[in-house]
Design brief:
Layout lengths: L2 E7 L3 E8 L4 E9 H4 L19 E2 L1 H16 L7 E8 L4 E5 L2 H6 L7 H5 L8 E2 L7 H11 L2 H8 L8 H11 L1 H6 E6 H10 L5 E2 H4 L5 E2 L4 E2 L1 H7 L10 E2 L4 E4 L2 H7 L6 E3 L2 E2 H8 L7 E6 L3 E7 L11 E4 L5 E7 L3 H10 L5 H10 L5 E6 L3 E2 L2 E2 L2 E6 L6 H17 L9 E5 L6 H11 L3 E4 L4 H15 L3 H8 L2 E6 L6 H14 L2
Parallel strand pairs: 1-5, 5-14, 5-15, 9-12, 16-24, 24-25
Antiparallel strand pairs: 1-2, 2-3, 4-7, 6-8, 10-11, 13-14, 16-17, 17-19, 18-19, 20-23, 21-22, 25-26
Length: 508
Amino acid sequence: MPRALGIDLSTQGVTALLVDTDRGALLARARAAFGPDFPSRGHPEGFLPGGASGEVHADPLLWLDGLQLALDRLAQSADLSQVAALAVSGQQHGSVYLADGFQLALADPDPSKSLAAQLAPFLSRPTSPIWMDSSTVEDCQAIAAALGGHQAACDLTGSAVTARFTGPQIRRFARLEPAAWSRTARVHLVSSFATSVLAGRDAPIDTGDGAGMNLMDLAAGAWSPAALAATAPDLARRLPPVVPGPTLVGPVSAYLVARHGFSPRCQVVVGTGDNPSSLVGMGASRPGQVVVSLGTSDTLFAAIDGARADPAGLGHAFGNPMGGTMSLVCVRNGSLARDAIRRELGLADWAAFAAAVDAAPPAQSAVLPLEHDEITPRRPAGRVAVGAPVSGPSLARAAVEGQALSLRLHSRWVGTPTTRLLLAGGASENPAIAQVFADVFGAPVLRLGVSDSAALGAALRAAHAACGSSLADLEAAFCQPAPGIVQPRSRLAPAYAALESALAAALR
């Protein structure tokens, strides 16, 4: 009866999810929230507020305290000695900087003391930049220039050089604080840092998370010498090796055995980023299934055969923990833009918004509503309209169709036909919006009922890599969508193709 534990260290807290893979059942869940559980630490939203020049940092010692609290709470409702394997999902692009001696501290910690207290002396940088950090524009430009431009960097690493990515964060640190950089012996990602702590040894970085650094050769699945040289002095010796997603790191640390009751036979699988982990947790680790998460920002995930980057340099390609690569297309103007349209039309709630979408004729117009400057496509705030003129309540349908068409347009580079579309996020529960996405993508739409997808993905990866469980069987047991399929109306395909072409021309 293999039991697997997935731990997700997100921006706002730590979630621990224990599953029974034989029964296909969730056994226990525990969470520690950085703001509410540690009010005196100054992280009300999971990060340090008020950073200058676009800096957004967090305290890595708080991550350790949250990890311990989540495990303490999990032990109150589950027997952790029965856990056969565990894996970590970590917020992508966050980085931790450690001095010499941290490996010895990992190997022989005192179970009577907190991990944070024992590792604090080995931080060469007291805070960690995270994915929200935008202070590295100058460094992005320098790295891109050294690699031959943003498109060359995208072709090499899977992404244009991006401000929130780890490579530019490292470069800025080494440039502005050379003395602290000289004391840095190891740079870890959030996932590999937490994995190292849980295994009691220096853990590698997997290709899924490594690809979110602008440092990895995507096709080779290894660090790129050119990218390392463009980023910081002697960076190669400061990075752990990069390895495939199913790699075993080793048994859990003696600390976890003594303090939290784990079995010394419990295996730790290499960690990965929250985006690759969610791909697995949503049951979309194989090509053909596309996940669209409709939230504050809209995000599209899809597995890719082989290694392929976006020729337009807008989308991102990360390693897929289950092999190959994965796409990530992120649109800043998601639900906030839809809500702005709803308020503009004077619609009282989302039911009224759905009624307006249903009442308008389909595939007549498309409006891309950009309430804020957009990243996909790179456009200033404003609206892009194609097709027939839009007036009154028909704007609701045109806006949703414009968003769906833009996601379809900007994910064409993935190159894999969509056999089914999995919708997640709050707006996915709106039947009218689900129908629009089915029609635009020309694929059946299913709504995902999976919660804690990153933690679940970590648990499934652990069971697959350490216990030999079939990933297909695990997905069938844990990743089933909610009942009901929204079928596309094939007669609308030519009209949507014309609108997509018109939108592409308008965005050039």
